[in-house]
């Protein structure tokens, strides 16, 4: 009798072990244009049906047509922000797994930050960068682009130009390609918005100084939320100002008659880095500021 009870106990324990709920694991972070796979990892069952729902809705889980294997492969677009689970059968039992949430990497568009100095300016008409002959200025791509980097000049790759920053000394049409290290095969390019560099041979001779008023005008606060304040030196009258983004695109251009002090409303701008160009009969004053 004791042997029979012992055997029943053993068989009962085996039945419980065979009937445990399925456990699923899978790729939960996907790069654009990629796929992931989730699988039952603990044991085999008689049948499988995968379900999904988007986590931010109150809808019920829906069965996924054709997803009836122990593994399910899903694409980054359809199942971004989805919850996945599987319902299985084992004999007469129906069991449900844990749920996993699928997400896709997202990041800011590729931008180039031009590090302005006294030898480079933005032409307010053409929006081209104008550089004094024999000088240089640095250009840096924004985060998170840190791998598979290639800078281009006149639509040809620049040999060895594979860092996040590149110093330009020559005229030409420039753009860059790069990817983040967490999705190294997803390469973005600024070829659609290249920037043009022109050489100003006069400024090296002292005929023109593209930023001659820089020390005569102070701007604050920086970063700024709403109003940018200007302190303008004596005998200086600002007759025009332009606010450009870091690609050189003019966002705001106004004629003015600023003297002594002035205020510029920047509340309509999105948060980010901008370039302020102040123009007067005595020259230009170029300043970078952050809208926060």
UniProtKB/TrEMBL annotation:
Keyword tRNA processing part of the UniProt annotation: no
Classification via InterPro entries: Secre_tail
Keywords: Signal
Entry protein name: T9SS type A sorting domain-containing protein
Domain Secretion system C-terminal sorting intervals: 219-290
Signal peptide start-end: 1-19
Highest taxon listed in the record's lineage: Bacteria
Provenance organism: Aequorivita marisscotiae
Keyword Electron transport appears in the UniProt entry: no
Classification via NCBIfam families: Por_Secre_tail
A Pfam short name: Por_Secre_tail
């Amino acid at each position: 009798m004791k042997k029979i009870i012992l055997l029943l106990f053993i068989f009962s324990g085996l039945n419980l072990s065979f009937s445990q709920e399925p456990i699923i694991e899978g790729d939960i972070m996907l790069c654009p244009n990629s796929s992931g796979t989730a699988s039952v990892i603990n044991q085999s069952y008689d049948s499988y049906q995968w379900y999904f729902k988007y986590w931010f809705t109150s809808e019920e889980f829906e069965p996924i047509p054709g997803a009836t294997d122990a593994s399910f492969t899903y694409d980054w677009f359809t199942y971004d922000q989805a919850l996945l689970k599987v319902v299985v059968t084992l004999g007469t039992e129906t069991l449900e797994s844990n749920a996993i949430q699928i997400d896709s990497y997202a990041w800011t568009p590729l931008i180039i930050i031009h590090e302005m100095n006294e030898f480079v300016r933005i032409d307010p008409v053409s929006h081209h960068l104008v550089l004094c002959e024999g000088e240089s200025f640095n250009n840096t791509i924004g985060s998170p682009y840190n791998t598979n980097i290639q800078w281009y000049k006149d639509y040809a790759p620049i040999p060895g130009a594979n860092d996040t920053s590149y110093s330009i000394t020559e005229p030409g049409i420039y753009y860059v390609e790069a990817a983040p290290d967490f999705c190294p095969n997803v390469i973005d390019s600024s070829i659609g918005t290249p920037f043009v560099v022109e050489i100003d041979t006069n400024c090296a001779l002292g005929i023109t100084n593209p930023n001659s008023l820089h020390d005569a005008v102070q701007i604050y606060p920086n970063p700024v939320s709403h109003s940018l304040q200007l302190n303008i030196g004596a005998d200086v009258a600002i007759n025009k100002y332009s606010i450009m983004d870091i690609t050189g695109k003019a966002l705001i251009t106004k004629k003015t008659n600023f003297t002594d002090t002035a205020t510029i409303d920047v509340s309509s701008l999105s948060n980010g880095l901008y370039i302020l160009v102040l123009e007067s009969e005595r020259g230009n004053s170029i300043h970078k500021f952050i809208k926060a």
